[in-house]
Amino acid sequence: MEFTDVDTLDMVGIFPNYRKALDAWRAVSQAHVDEAHGKYVIVHLHRML
Fold first, then answer.
1. DSSP secondary structure string for all residues of 1-49
2. Which of 21, 23, 28, 9 has the alpha carbon at shortest distance from 45?
């Protein structure tokens, strides 16, 4: 995954498991549903290392 502008990333948090990350993703995505150019993704840190 490549980010075009890392200075404007909105980091929601680091979670102990996928389920908690998914719950947070759903909440933040729903709160920003009107922003067509924004996208929230779950990034697996262990895959990036």
1. ---S-GGG-------SSHHHHHHHHHHHHHHTTT-TT-------HHHH-
2. 21
Per-residue pLDDT of the chain (49 residues; tens, 9 = 90+): 677 788 888 888 899 999 999 999 899 988 877 777 777 778 787 776 6
φ/ψ of 9, rounded to 5, equals: -65, 140
Segments making up each domain of the chain, as ranges: 6-48
Whose structure tokens read 């404007």? Answer: 8
Question: CB of 19 within 8 A of CB of 30?
Answer: no
